[in-house]
Design a protein that fits this description.
Elements lengths: L1 H17 L6 H6 L33 H5 L1 H14 L13 H13 L14
């Protein structure tokens, strides 16, 4: 009986010793902030993003809202939403009109030649 109790206590002590210490929010707030990540000097080159196709806030240069105006960009976004099968399509007036139109074209090309296409594909 004593051996069993000693073995259980020893196992509990080993398990407790393996656990990381619990950190409190005060300890995290008082600790030094981590420096921002830096790219290593020997890292491979990163892909450049075309600034004309980058997502920009609505109304900013490069957005469809700024390019085409509120009415035209709203129509383009509605067409895009109606035809796109993507779970997160780029159908947003903050994106460039070209990007939205490419998504419409891509979605409409998915229909077979004899298959009925949505009216938004012909607009």
């Amino acid at each position: 009986m004593r051996r069993t109790v000693v073995a259980i206590l020893a196992a509990a002590a080993f398990v407790a010793a393996c656990q990381p210490p619990a950190e409190t929010p005060e300890a995290e707030a008082a600790g030094p902030a981590a420096p921002p990540p830096e790219m290593p000097a020997d890292a491979p080159p990163q892909e450049e993003v075309d600034p004309a196709l980058a997502v920009s806030p609505a109304g900013q240069p490069g957005s469809c809202l700024a390019e085409a105006g509120p009415a035209a960009s709203a129509r383009l976004v509605e067409r895009c939403i109606a035809v796109s099968p993507a779970t997160h399509p780029p159908c947003n007036a903050a994106n460039p009109c070209e990007m939205i139109q490419r998504e419409i074209d891509r979605a409409c090309e998915m229909y077979a030649p004899g298959e009925a296409r949505p009216a938004e594909c012909g607009a």
